[in-house]
Structures are given as structure tokens and as C-alpha cells.
User: Fold this.
Amino acid sequence: MMTIPKYLFVCIWALLLCFCACDASAQGRAVRDSVLFSPYFQIHGGLGSSAGDLGLRFGSGGHVGAGAHVKTTKNWFFGGQASFGFGMELKEFGVLSNLLTPTGQLIDNEGQVALLTLSGKGGWFTLEAGKLFPLANTNPNSGILVMIGAGSVHHRIHFENTENRITQLEEPYVSGYDRLTWGVASRQFLGYWHMSNNGLVNWFGGLELWEARTWPQRPMNFDTLVADEGPRFDAMASLQIGWVFHIYKRSNPEHWY
Assistant:
């Protein structure tokens, strides 16, 4: 049975699609012929690989996110976006070492071998600006998009336990193991931006980079009995794609004689 939140979510998406479809015919000619002013929302996702000090601790992983921007009649872009990173391969040694048996196993509260998955999670938020450079064979609202921004980033180790509880990996003790890190970040994006002539197919794809100066947020790790050192240089490179929902201003009706 569909829950109320899911029902509302479906209704919102249906209204967005109907709104885009109703405005599509009115906007087709404008997209082809002139540079449009358009606020828009985006959803995006991608796969990336860690670098710098982050690359010593985590491997590749995915991310999803959303953003809101404004595209001007000069093809400048202004706005912000947030992304949630997940599934990063853990490479750091020593995690949970004080909880493991001599054979390298972790025992849960029921005295059984724990079924535990360790990975990296994180997030980044940036305010940004950019410029679109139309190509010779595209409409004036499509082409090469360059974006730069600044904001914050954080990441930590995530413990996914699929069976019995493990007290040491619950609050407040888990903070002694999760290696929470926070810092200031810069972001760059280089890719292709597409606004279709009929107004219905709007997407982008390209290379996303972010670099950050980060600091460990925990005073001590319970497993190693030492504090992580900082600051660090963390970075990630990702291939990112996204879908765009424009908020068009409806064109004036045309009169034929």
C-alpha cells in the first residue's frame, strides 16, 4: 500500500512533468532562437575516485544530489547544490582493531560473529557560478558548461550491521570509530549542457572535481588510541550526469492572420 509521503512525492513529480509538457510547445521556438532566462532545479548522480589524503583512506564510490540555479540571458549560471556520497571502499588500516578477536572477527551482543560492512559516506555543499559556451551546431542554450564553486565537505566511516546489535558501534561510542572529518572545499565542473528545442529533454554530463582542506573532528580514535592528524588535502574526481527541470516564463501567444 502506498504511504502518504510516497503519494505526495509521486504527485509532485507528476505536476512537474505536466508543467514541463504544457510549456514545451510555447518554448520550442524560443529555445532555438534566443538565449533564455530560466531558473531550474536539477537532480544528479555519478561515480568517482578519491585522491590526495582521502585516496589513502577511501577508494571509489557513488553520489547523488540536487541543486537549484538560475540561467541568465547572457548564459551565466548562479546557484548551489548538495551531494551525498556513499559506498566508498574503505582502505584505512586499524579500524575496529581493538574490537577484533585474534582471528580478526568481530563479535556482536549475542556472541555471534558480526556481519558488518564498512564503507565511506559523506556530503558536500557548494555555492557556484558558471558560464555556458554554445557550439556551432547547437541552439544558443546548449553547449560546453564550466562551473566553479566553494563550500564545505564532510565524510566518515559508515558501519552497516545486518544482524544483531553491536553496542560499541552505537551512540555515543561510534564517534570513537567513525573518523568524522570536515573542511572547506572548492568545486569545478566541465561538461556538456543540453536544452532541447521542444523543452522536454534537458540534461547535463561531465567531469566533476572537488578539493578540500579538512580537519579530523574526533579528539581520539578508540581503536588506535591516538587522534588523527590534520589538516589534510582531500580530493575526488567523478563522472556526473543530471536531469534538469526548468521553470520557464510562458511565451506570449502568437496570432496568425
Observations:
- Residues 1-5, 8-12, 15-26 have pLDDT under 50 and may be disordered.
- The longest strand covers residues 116-134.
- Residues 148 and 188 are 5 Å apart (CA to CA).
- The longest helix spans residues 4-33.
